[in-house]
Design brief:
12 strands, 14 helices, seven-stranded mixed beta sheet, alpha/beta, Rossmann fold, five-stranded mixed beta sheet, 429 residues
Length: 429
């Protein structure tokens, strides 16, 4: 197949990664200005309540010892216990964790969950560790932060490079210290240990529920619509499969190694099998090879950035061709790109709403763990869809009322809710 992208201009890359917490505060201030938020409330909500950094030794398989650095940040516990994932990545920084903790506060608030936001991370390349070393690292990290987490205090969940097994180790470590089983200390657990049906697919499913509502609002028929997905991990693969089930034509998919493109549409299920066998979407038969940058600029109705932060910026935003951008990843669009996309009439479904399916079903799992009463998959998905529908309607109405983009509208709704909690609770002592 001859690539139709060969004549496209070379993508413009952003030179230096931004300070993610600064970006989060900039986005907050835009919404705070619309709300007319008082200075004292801005001071409170732009600071994280607790920032924990731990440096801990881990014994490696060869008997050597390495010291790793981990963080756990709790942004705001006004609405209830804090909630957020734990990621393992070599580029984890305190600034990143703080930004993601703040975004978790808004994410929980925008879909009406009784949680504040938190986030955790360890600076490590998990691909360089054995399973035994990962377990040792997890248990030691959790031991150091255990005084600050708990089912009524702060509830971790999976994130980048962590999974249900990681959560099982965290639950067991915390439970051993407590002296009894505490399934509610984490979500995203294996089903056997009290996990929820539908949790693994929840973020991707929630993205597609959000797309359905957006498509309905603007009169886009998903049957036959084209979609491109950046990232083919847990979120991107589920979103791609669900879009295909709805009759959409998924024309491009990428992962960390590169991407594949076929304007006639990809067989997503077959591509999933290919990825499981080879470790990447690359070299899938009958497709053109493209880069992650090129995927973002493909002609399509729906673009789903479901990989990492800061992918859509001022350099490439003028060339985005989608009608809807549905953020499966956290922070994939920079503030200056938001303005460009809004001015061009592109509807961006912001991360704090669009990928909130994961934390929503985490909330369902937490409730089930506290009650020791499991729900069916049908009940989980039905409740998730209802929450995404209700949240979209509120955000879309706010955007129309103030003539602002959807991200700012979502932040307006979320910040107003958290500010109300803060005012009502007051300042102690």
């Amino acid at each position: 197949m001859v690539s139709s992208l060969q004549s496209a201009p070379a993508p413009t890359r952003q030179a230096d990664p931004p300070d993610l917490f600064r970006v989060a505060v900039e986005q907050f201030e835009l919404a705070a200005d619309i709300l007319g938020l008082e200075d004292s409330m801005r001071q409170i909500l732009t600071h994280c309540q607790r920032e924990i950094t731990v440096n801990f030794p881990v014994e490696m398989d060869d008997g050597s010892v390495q010291v790793f650095t981990g963080h756990r940040v709790q942004h705001n516990n006004g609405p209830g216990p804090t909630k957020g994932g734990i990621r393992y990545h070599q580029n984890v920084t305190l600034s990143e964790v703080k930004a993601l903790a703040m975004l978790m506060t808004w994410k929980c608030a925008v879909v009406g969950l009784p949680y504040g936001g938190a986030k955790g991370g360890v600076t490590v390349n998990p691909k360089m560790l054995s399973q035994n070393e990962l377990q040792n690292l997890t248990r030691r990290y959790v031991s150091d932060i255990s005084p600050f987490i708990g089912p009524n205090q702060d509830i971790p969940a999976p994130d980048m490079n962590t999974n249900a097994q990681t959560m099982a180790w965290i639950m067991d470590t915390y439970s051993m210290n407590a002296g009894y089983s505490v399934p509610g200390v984490v979500t995203g657990k294996p089903l056997t240990l009290g996990g929820s049906e539908g949790r693994a697919e929840a973020t991707g499913s929630g993205v597609v529920f959000a797309i359905e509502e957006a498509a309905r609002a603007i009169g886009l028929n998903l049957e036959g619509a084209t979609a491109a997905v950046q990232g083919f991990g847990n979120v991107g693969s589920v979103a791609a499969l669900e879009m295909a089930k709805r009759g959409s034509k998924v024309v491009g998919i990428s992962d960390w190694k590169g991407g594949v493109y076929n304007p006639a549409g990809l067989d997503v299920a077959a591509l999933k099998e290919h990825t499981e066998a080879t470790g990447s979407v690359t070299d899938f038969p009958g497709t053109d090879a493209i880069s992650n940058d090129e995927l973002l600029e493909l002609p399509c109705d729906i673009l789903i950035p479901a990989a990492i932060e800061c992918q859509i910026h001022a350099g490439n935003a003028p060339r985005i061709q989608a009608t809807i951008v549905a953020e499966g990843a956290n922070g994939p669009t920079m503030p200056e790109a938001d303005e460009i996309l809004f001015d061009r009439g592109i509807l961006v479904l912001p991360d704090i709403f669009c990928n909130a399916g994961g934390v929503t079903v985490s909330y369902f799992e937490w409730v089930q763990s506290l009650q020791w009463f499991p729900w069916s998959l049908e009940e989980v998905n039905s409740r998730l869809q209802q929450i995404m529908q209700k949240s979209f309607a509120a955000i879309y109405a706010t955007a129309g009322e103030h003539q602002i983009n959807m991200r700012t509208a979502a932040l307006v709704k979320a910040i107003d809710r958290v500010a109300d909690f803060t005012r009502l609770r007051g300042i102690f002592p």
